[in-house]
Amino acid sequence: MSKTILPTRWNAAGSRRAEGLYDPAFEHDSCGVGFIARLDAKPDHQIVADGVKILINLEHRGAIGGDKGTGDGAGLLFKLPDTFFRTIEHELGFSIPPEGDYAVGMIFMPQDAALRNDCISAFEKAAKSEGTRVLGWRAVPVQSDHLGELARRTQPRIEQIFLGRGTIPQEHFERKLLVIRRVIEKEVNSWQGVDTGQFYVVTLSSQIITYKGLITGTQLPIFYPDITNINFKTPFTLVHQRYSTNTLPTWRLAQPFRLLAHNGEINTLRGNINRMRAREARIQSPLFGKDIEKIKPILIETGSDSAIFDNALELLVRAGRSLPHCMMMMIPEAYGPKVRMSMDKQAFYEYHSALMEPWDGPAAVAFTDGRYIGATLDRNGLRPARYTITKDGRVVMASETGVLDFEPENILRRGRLQAGKMFLVDLEQNRIVPDNEIKAKISRQRPYRRWVKVNHVELRGLFAPARVPRLEPLQLRRLQHAFNYTDEELKIILAPMATNGQEPVGSMGNDAALAVLSERPQLLFGYFKQLFAQVTNPPIDPLREELVMSLESFVGREKNFLEETPEHYRGLKLQHPVLTPSDLARIRQSEYTTIKTTEIDILFSATGGGKEMETALDTIFEQAKSAILEGSTIIILTDRNLAKERAPIPVMLAAAGLHHYLIKEGLRNLAGIILETGEVREVMHFALLIAYGADAICPY
User: Fold this and answer.
1) What is the pTM of this model?
2) CA distance 59 to 537
3) Among 32, 98, 369, 394, who pairs with 241 as Cys (CB 3.0-4.6 Å)?
4) Which CATH superfamily is domain 459-501+517-698 in?
5) Is residue 564 within 8 Å of residue 354, measured between CB atoms?
């Protein structure tokens, strides 16, 4: 294998490595998206040309680098242009099988020739081992003279690989192509001592293909002469113009990805990633079989938030759900007792909320799998999406109206996508499917209403204890000393909360020393600061926006989220994650078979040091593991039994440590974590505990 000298900060693809305070995991972006499609689904080069026009007209929503020639990224996703590839078949040197029996991979390759040959060999080996036929390769013609300096310097070599379906059933072909892609990605990423940063599988599919790059909309048709060929025909074009608000643009982060183009940001990304990682150990799929292990890890965390969203969406689709179904799961509309909605659709969202958390944030997402093409908005409607339908059967959706010019007499209907709604074109049925129709059909494909009704368990439905003992004044004073409460906290923080039932409001300034610089003992919570939304999100909370915000959650054992059974609506539903001592007593005394609790003290020797605390934590983790394997569905970590000889472990350390220990052991989704602690006293403390793995907190 060839060797190259690795740069210290940047790889060959132009991606910066994590260093100091910079971490690519914190990157987000905001963009322009859209699509154009023919309702009759007939391939047409004019649809390609119109897609280019839309991209150019959305160029002001993108950005250009300091070299005045490098765009933040632009791309077009097409139905695989079968006619085009057949017209150049004589140039390829091999025969192309019938449509649907072959796939084309769009591959970014290293410019280093020796390393590129290694990638080609590894790709062919992976493809053959999975049962496909390698038909051949094609060097994609490009014109890069007009690109900016950064784009040229990091430009990969772009190749296309053609794979025959072989003996793989056609209905499993796309699934097998995903397996091949993940196998080769993991193989190349495992190579040591070489810079493989430019290697990237843009798309590998028998249905779609993406042409994208670190370019602007105007540059794209010049850079890729393929798409200006009159024989390059498609029934639809998905469009994306990237604006990197606080990211470093690279070739691979340009969109569209494999199934979608995304304008917005995923504010819950870190939680989504952790939850998906926790599920991986237990996911199974009869459609993937043993191949499910080959595609793990499911999420490629070095990608942008949009790329990671695409990873999760691709798994759900390939595991058997329809694309609209998956979009309803990942970006649900607002639902609840105050929202006017059919009972079937309400039950659908309720059921799936127990399977998987939403990927929340301002979002306008355009998506396609070759059959469906459509768009959806987040439930707050924080990104624009406008559509135009013409009398001659064209449908245009984009981040703004006017991206294409139409004669007024040719316009059948115009409108804008509403918050939480879906705009869907079915290219097999050759029609636009209304939001209420597609969601009603999906909501009734299984008896979700009956499943929710039969398995519904709420806190108020549990047996209420006769009496919960109150803390005596002397005992309360001792606990306040043990947890280092101050007079200032009691008067300024706790008293207003107890009196008014709301978080105390103070001045804008805070002259207290940072915890890391303070000479006084500090709670572990004090070393953390709030991470605010990074782009253009308005402040929202469940009090002022109760129709679109919720604190509801489920505690208990999760099942494989790639399947759907009555038992998947699991565990105990909480209206919010803060429990009273009476609430916790209800849970402890529950006789439901799905609620089995185990209580573990989070204490260590009061005369010990860091080593004793570490040993105590290891013991706690082992106790939790044993309890879960014996059937417990809720682990209660408590510091209530503290004594002179036994001091409490910082509850955040215990909760986060157990959370990640169980993820590593593949057990996290088999039990909920409830904290019973006297340490928390501020709203931010609760937020931190939830963020770092707790499901609910009882501040006794």
Assistant:
1) 0.89
2) 22
3) 32
4) Aldolase class I (3.20.20.70)
5) no
CATH of domain 24-452: 3.60.20.10
CA distance linking residue 299 with residue 543, whole number of Å: 33
Name the residue among 271, 270, 274 with its Cα closest to residue 661: 274
Helix runs in 9-148, H state only: 45-57, 82-87, 89-92, 113-129
Sign of CA dihedral 162, 168, 174, 177: negative
Starting at the edge strand that comes first in sequence, how are the strands of the sheet with 157-164 ordered? 133-139, 157-164, 102-109, 200-205
Give the pLDDT confidence of 333-368 residue by residue, as tens digits: 988 888 889 999 999 999 999 999 999 888 999 999
Of 423, 442, 441, 444, nearest to 433 by C-alpha is 423
Band (pLDDT 50/70/90 cuts) for residue 27 is very low
Residue with tokens 């890069």: 144
Domains 24-452 and 459-501+517-698 share a fold: no
**Band of pLDDT at residue 2, cut at 50, 70 and 90:** very low
Q: How confident is the model at residue 519 (pLDDT cuts 50, 70, 90)?
A: confident
Q: Write the pLDDT tens digit of every residue in 120-149.
A: 999 999 999 999 999 999 999 999 998 989
Q: Is residue 698 annotated as part of the catalytic site, yes or no?
A: no
First vs last Cα of the chain: how many Å apart?
Answer: 61
CA torsion through residues 132, 135, 139, 140, sign:
negative
Give the separation between CA 196 and CA 208, rounded to whole angstroms.
25
Pair of tokens at residue 474: 């002397």
What does the alpha-carbon distance between residue 214 and residue 650 come to, in Å, rounded to a whole number? 47
Report the pLDDT averaged over residues 161-180.
Answer: 96
Please state the domain extents for the chain.
24-452, 459-501+517-698
DSSP string, 310-327: HHHHHHHHHTT--HHHHH
* Confidence tier at 470 by pLDDT (50, 70, 90): confident
Residue in 31, 119, 326, 698 annotated catalytic: 31
